[in-house]
Amino acid sequence: LYFYRKIFSLVKEVIKDRALLAFEMGFDQRHLMQEAVEYYFPDTPYEIIKDMSGKDRMLFIYYHIKDTL
Hints:
- The protein is an alpha+beta fold.
- The chain contains 2 helices and 3 strands, in the order αβαββ.
- It has a 3-stranded antiparallel β-sheet, covered by helices on one side.
- The longest helix is centred in the middle third of the chain and has 11 residues, at 30-40.
- The N and C termini lie far apart (31 Å).
């Protein structure tokens, strides 16, 4: 997860005040991705979506989006 953590640690420098961040992830990385998101984006809504096979596959981080809708 080196590159995910690298992106998470630096992305706030380049995104706008409100942003949707979307990532494809390995089906067995749910727990590790949740930990990373909660560390780098505390109190930020996110969700993990399953693919057509029912495996965790997509991560969406709603940076200052869902709290303003």
